[in-house]
Write a structure and sequence with these properties.
CATH class of the largest domain: Alpha Beta
Helix content: 25-40%
Number of domains: 2
Number of helices: 14
Bound molecules: 2-aminohexanedioic acid
Largest sheet: 7 strands, mixed
CATH superfamily of the largest domain: Aldehyde Dehydrogenase, Chain A, domain 1
Length: 520
């Protein structure tokens, strides 16, 4: 893998030009902190404003560009991503430590999203609707919303932005993106491919920077009226701040927030299948997916047997360099995530909890892992954890931890399992392992999450179904699939009267009245 550092000190891509700032931000390879992947600078508030203004100036022309022409540029982008799939996946793995196979999967998700929306440029259907009066026609049109501001997270730094930008651009919106400060190189190459795809200047703008600075400036600009629509993937706390700012301005943001995703293993589950599903849900991507497993809920009759097997199977997983395909997971995305993981272990694990794998923090720093091939000194690697004896009263039950840390709860009956699956207040993903159709039916009806898997992992949503959550996981907005078009367009109703006279709705109609004098 190339160890070249992208050292351009850019802070933003505005109106088709790269510009520079002064305060450096650096993304490191989490498998080896000595490897600097990219050196950029932070966009200050004026630069974020300039990016939003550039999107505003480009808006009218872009909104009036025929939708199939707009979608043609998405097609170009998808093809370019396909041609660069290997290179982009390598950058992803180097920059956020995602195992290479998963990086390839993530880049494929970008391509799938483009493929799905290319033909939407030839649909974006409105309706022709009958009028209640003669010589009058009614129509509905989907209109773009305007300037779309979007802040994304570091765990899916290519796929998740595509869920937003691909439909937003096809629908005729112009965009400003603040990618994660931990994935600068990925965002840089993504933007380069956007540029090569042919989008006109100002249609797609990018600002780099940290959350408390550039991100905060971004949020302030909602009150300045610089954005018409906001998309945000990240923590529930910041999602609430964004929701408040949007609410004040009568906007509905698309918020994709945290999760404490439950997985139920019923007494009649196929145990081997469930074990594989639990291990990937728990530790795939080092537990750093919004859809990763948070609360594992096991029926009391199979509990001991399941835990014994789960612990044995987990002990056999390999952890280490993300380029080695034998490794199940690599380092945490950055030092920040490692520190937060350690804080969770220190603060949320209580006396009555039991950790059958040991208390697994930073590998090489007081703890070890048998099958480990990473650089413990310079990498942000951490051991997996299962926390047993968790109850719904414990704070770990309802706190998103975002890392390889999974609670285990024991249940007596289906009602208790459903309570455990819902009561934490998040509602993103969920799963059940069972062979009983009645149980599946109950689960589907009672789960409050936006997404559910039956006999599969909590992770791994496909790119053409609605993705998103309820409760603390979001405001009900959805990404992906055809439904997302509703996020990026507003309905416009048109009445076209050709009668040549003033016809008033509800009054100048020719309804035939019933005989009002008739009484039976
Ligand atoms: C996320 O973690 O924000 O469903 C996205 C999945 C992936 C996307 C996760 N396709 O696990």
């Amino acid at each position: 893998m190339s160890s070249k550092t992208i050292d351009n000190r850019y802070s933003a891509f505005v109106n088709g030009e790269w510009i520079k700032g002064s305060k450096e931000i650096i993304s490191l390879n989490p498998a080896d902190r000595r490897d600097q992947v990219a050196i950029f600078t932070e966009a200050d508030k004026d630069q974020v404003r300039a990016a939003a203004d550039s999107a505003r100036s480009a808006y009218k022309k872009w909104a009036n560009t025929p939708a199939p022409v707009r979608a043609g540029m998405i097609q170009n982008f998808g093809r370019l991503v396909e041609q660069n799939k290997l290179a982009l996946s390598k950058v992803l793995t180097r920059e956020i430590g995602k195992p290479f196979r998963e990086s390839m999967g993530e880049v494929q998700e970008v391509i799938d999203t483009c493929n799905f929306f290319i033909s939407e440029g030839r649909r974006l259907y409105g309706q022709t609707v009958p009028s209640e009066m003669p010589n009058k026609e009614l129509f509905t049109y989907r209109r773009p919303i305007g300037v779309f501001g979007c802040i994304t997270a570091c765990n899916f730094p290519a796929a998740v932005p595509s869920w937003y930008f691909v439909p937003a651009l096809v629908a005729g919106n112009t965009c400003v993106w603040k990618p994660s400060e931990d994935a600068l190189a990925t965002a840089y190459y993504y933007t380069e491919l956007m540029q090569k795809a042919g989008f006109p200047q100002g249609v797609f703008n990018v600002v780099f920077g940290n959350g408390p600075t550039t991100g905060a400036a971004f949020i302030d600009l909602i009150d300045e009226g610089k954005f018409d629509k906001i998309g945000f993937t990240g923590s529930t706390a910041i999602g609430k701040r964004i929701g408040e700012a949007c609410g004040r301005n009568l906007q509905t943001p698309c918020l994709e927030l945290g999760g404490k995703n439950p997985l139920i293993v019923a007494e009649d589950a196929n145990i081997d299948l469930a074990l594989d599903g639990v291990i990937f849900s728990s530790f795939g991507t080092a537990g750093q997916r919004c859809t990763s497993l948070g609360n594992l809920i096991i029926h009391h009759k199979i509990y001991d047997n399941f835990i014994t097997k789960l612990v044995a199977k987990t002990k056999a997983i390999k952890i280490g360099v993300p380029t080695n395909e034998k490794n199940f997971y690599g380092p945490l995305i950055s030092e920040r995530f490692l520190r937060s993981h350690e804080t969770h272990l220190a603060k949320l694990v209580e006396k009555h909890h039991e950790l059958p794998l040991g208390k697994g923090g930073h590998i090489g720093h007081g703890v070890n892992w048998e099958h480990f091939d990473g650089d413990a000194e310079n990498g942000f690697y951490t051991r997996p954890n299962f926390v047993l004896n968790v109850s719904m009263k414990d704070s770990i039950y309802s706190t998103e931890t975002f890392g390889p840390l999974v609670n285990v709860l024991k249940y007596q009956d289906d009602d208790e399992a459903m309570a455990m699956a819902n009561n934490h207040g998040y509602g993103l993903s969920s799963a059940i392992y069972t062979s009983d159709p009645q149980r599946i039916y109950k689960f589907k009806n009672e789960i409050t999450a936006g997404m559910s898997s039956i006999n599969n992992s909590t992770t791994g949503a496909e790119a053409h179904l609605p993705f998103g959550g309820n409760g603390k996981s979001g405001n009900g907005g959805r990404q992906s699939g055809i439904w997302v078009v509703d996020q990026f367009t507003k309905w416009h109703s048109v009445n076209w009267d050709m009668s040549g006279k003033l016809q008033l709705a509800q009054m100048d109609t020719e309804y035939v009245e019933p005989d009002m004098n008739y009484r039976f």
